Amino acid sequence: MSHAARVWSNLSDSEANFFIIDDDASVRVSLGRLLRSAGYRFKAFESAESFLLAHGQDTDGWIIADVHMPGMTGVELMQQVLQTHKSLRVVLITAFDDPDVRLQALEAGVAILLKPFDDSAATLSHRRNSIANNPDGGGRR
After folding, report:
1. The CATH classification of domain 3-131, taken from the options 3.40.630.30, 3.40.1080.10, 3.40.50.2300, 3.90.1640.10
2. Is 0.90 topped by the overall pTM?
């Protein structure tokens, strides 16, 4: 199983909120389509700052954030969210395999995926179906 497939397979809550944070509109659209096709709800944001302005500390769900964005980076967002939003889980995405970023994510217990993703739609749909049959499906922090 690919790394991307393992990350997607850890999605635990079929009612989870997803927050796609990427300055590239095409990534926001394609990830939104992927999540919608698997039956998940999502909101998309073009910056980390716009997400933080829109959502308080009581927000729960999953953040899927690009590493390289103008203003606050995905790594900076990850660090802030892990301190202030205890019920949010983070997945970082990037087109650039940077060992320093990978190490920061690993140390924080955060998954990092390289774009483009592989097998994501099929894995996400399969995971949603298995959650329907087993509501305790794992993947929580």
Report:
1. 3.40.50.2300
2. no
